Amino acid sequence: SYQPCREFNVVVLGAGGVGKSCLTAQFVHNEWIESYDPTIEDSYRTQRAVDGRQVMLEILDTAGTEQFGGCHSAFKFPFASLTPSKVAMRDLYMKTGQGFLLVFSIASRTSFEELETLRDDIIRIKDDEDIPIVIVGNKADLEDQRAVDRAKAFSLSQRWSAPYYEASARTRTNVDEAFIDLCRQMLRRDDN
Length: 192
Ligand code: GDP
Ligand code: MG
Prior knowledge:
It comes from Chaetomium tenue. Keywords: Hydrolase. This is P-loop containing nucleoside triphosphate hydrolase protein. By secondary structure, this protein is an alpha/beta fold. Helix content is 39%, strand content 22%. The chain has helices spanning 20-29, 73-76, 83-96, 109-126, 150-160, 175-191; strands at residues 6-14, 42-50, 53-61, 99-105, 133-138, 164-166. Strand 5 (133-138), helix 5 (150-160) and strand 6 form a beta-alpha-beta unit. Guanosine-5'-diphosphate binds next to helix 1. Residues 20-21, 36, 38, 61, 63 line the site of magnesium ion.
């Protein structure tokens, strides 16, 4: 039987520098670019087959979550008056997001600790406890700089009932797997 193409809004969230732009570019364009402007926030459309069903994704690669408690806020947002609109914008994309990729770097403990606040915000803004989330520990190629135990990330993953992937945008490891898993969750949710 004919199945229409489903459309989903995906939001990629996480601390500055964890590799959100690199992961998004690898997934959407199959390319590795060493460096992106950290302040660029953009969205990308890409169509995929997931378990035989067509899915159109609108992926928002966010920037600047570190303004909420990070140490670079004064540098990136020098005018206090800009902050409220940034907050409103974040509320808006969290509201329209149907699936969230929560990214940290396995080489940064603070980036891991930030995930808790991000999920709290998503749940509060969407007023929904069961929102599709996938946790990504990026930069898995930097094993010698690991600062977040695999077991710690797994226990968070169990607590949230959200899958955990150790990924590397650099080596293109588990990039498709993480995004496609998120698609499966969004499809399952949409079916109910
Ligand atoms: P964003 O601020 O979260 O969008 O982070 P970027 O995607 O701009 O990446 C920040 C920095 O981390 C850049 O220097 C990237 O080259 C680097 N990077 C991103 N992903 C990986 C990865 O998987 N492995 C390694 N070794 N470096 C990465
Ligand atoms: Mg970026």
